[in-house]
Amino acid sequence: MMMMMMMMIDDDDDDDDDDDDDDDDNDDDENADMLMMLMLLLLMMMLLMPLLMLLLLLMMMMMMKRRRRRRGERRRRQQI
């Protein structure tokens, strides 16, 4: 993560306007860096979203199990 942050910092301090090609290359590098960061974000979301869905499903199953258990206890109390 720190490496990406260091890549974002532009340490080009010279004010030479003679080399327009270097500026274009720099813009291309920045665009490539941004594209890589977006791809990493997309990859992380693709990996994390199914895990979050499984966690949500597990929580819902646990809640349903508790609810059934409570209903069963109420029925037993009513029968007694």
Report on the structure:
This protein has 80 residues and is an all-alpha fold. The chain has one domain. The protein has two helices and no strands. The longest helix is centred in the middle third of the chain and has 60 residues. The termini are far apart. 0% of the residues are buried. The model has no long low-confidence stretch (mean pLDDT 78).
Brief summary of the model shown:
By secondary structure, this protein is mainly alpha-helical. It has helices at 2-8, 20-79. The chain is rod-shaped, with a radius of gyration of 28 Å.
- Count the strands? 0
Biggest sheet details: none
Order of helices and strands: HH
Our measurement of the CA-to-CA distance between the termini, rounded to an integer number of angstroms, reads 63 Å
Shape: rod-shaped
Structural class: mainly alpha
Fraction of residues in H or I helices: over 70%
Low-confidence stretches: none
Percent of residues in β-strands: under 5%
Give the overall average pLDDT.
78
Radius of gyration: 28 Å
User: In total, how many domains does the architecture comprise?
Assistant: 1
